[in-house]
Amino acid sequence: MEYAVVEGESFSPSCSTLIMPALSIGNVGQLAVDLLISSARAKRVAYLDEPSVLPCAGNDAFGPDAVGDLALALEAYESTYHRLAFIQQRSPVITGMAVSFAKNVADFISSIGKEHIIILSSLDSGRRRVIDASSNMQVYYLSSCKEDGSDPEYEKLGWKKLEEYDPTQPQWKCLDSLLAGDGLSEDMVGDSDEMTINDYYASLPFAALFSACKAKGLKVSCVLCYCSEGDNMPESFQLAEAACKLLGQGPEQFHGNGSNGWTIPLSWKSVYGPPPDMSIF
Q1: Is the N or the C terminus of the chain less surrounded, counting Cβ atoms within 10 Å?
Q2: Neighbour count for residue 223 (Cβ, 10 Å)
Q3: What's the rounded Cα separation, in Å, for the pair 19 and 101?
């Protein structure tokens, strides 16, 4: 991965925690990272050039006004005041290159001196084994703290470890082997017709990023929630709040102009287009 630092900017050693999305259903991770970048008033410090990510370009995502400052597919931001760094990804990885992307991201993050990586992502609610009838969104996690992905500190937050993570199962072992550059043995490949629910989770972008960062010796945490396609802004608020809770911060510390201290990104105004013309009713 190559990158171009914005003129007058540099990567700050004080921003040792980096938050990034893993693309998935409902784009909840991307929305949450947009919300965090906007609220923390983070500055763009670099444009990242990764061959495995499809190119895209759009207008300024954060505003306050759309002045034609282009937003590209992969960018790095930092807020020295809040000691946070971010990577925002706005387009998907080319099919078949997820492992290559994850390895390149882990190498880049390590090279700029980041110590704790927080990956925000969503899971397909149609794959959920147990339905939580409570009104609050349940947060799930994975942590590099222990080999089985558990972390007592995260349990204290009321979060649940993703039960489907089992590093001893074939698909997770296959992922680790690919990231280590090893060849695949026959018992790792298996029959695609016999894919289990656990194999589905191992195939998601967050799994490759988690395994790649872990293999690089980085401290890495995944913060996850279930959702369906549609308007997932409520889930993005809750996932962003979960990230703040993990960092021991609260959104009120951002002093934004929205509810609870958040600053709503400019790009959200056009997510679903303008409201309908009420005169037609």
Answers
A1: C
A2: 26
A3: 16
Q: What is the mean pLDDT of residues 161-174?
A: 88
Alpha helices in the chain (DSSP H): 28-40, 98-111, 152-156, 170-180, 186-189, 197-202, 205-215, 233-246
One DSSP character per residue, 81-103 reads: TTTEEEEEE-SPBPTT-HHHHHH
**Spatial separation of the C-alpha atoms in residues 146 and 153, rounded to whole Å:** 12
What are 171-190's pLDDT values in tens digits?
888 888 888 776 554 344 44
* pLDDT tens per residue, range 99-131: 999 999 999 999 999 999 999 999 988 877 666
Average pLDDT of the residues of the chain? 86
Q: What DSSP string runs through 128-186?
A: -SS---SSSPPPEEEETTSTTS--HHHHHTT-EE-TT--TTSHHHHHHHHHHHTPPPPH
pLDDT band at 87 (very low <50, low <70, confident <90, very high): very high
Tell me how crowded residue 201 is: count the other CB atoms within 10 A of its CB.
23
Helices H, strands E: what count in the chain?
8, 11
Tokens representing 197 are 């629910």
Contacts of 164 (CB under 8 A, 6+ apart): 197, 198, 200, 201
pLDDT of residue 280: 85
Angle of the 233-246 helix axis to the 28-40 helix axis, nearest 10: 60
Q: What pLDDT was estimated at residue 158?
A: 92
**Of the candidates 87, 89, 118, the residue with the CA atom closest to the CA atom of residue 223:** 118
Q: Which long-range contacts (CB under 8 A, 24 or more apart) does 249-252 make?
A: 249/82, 251/39
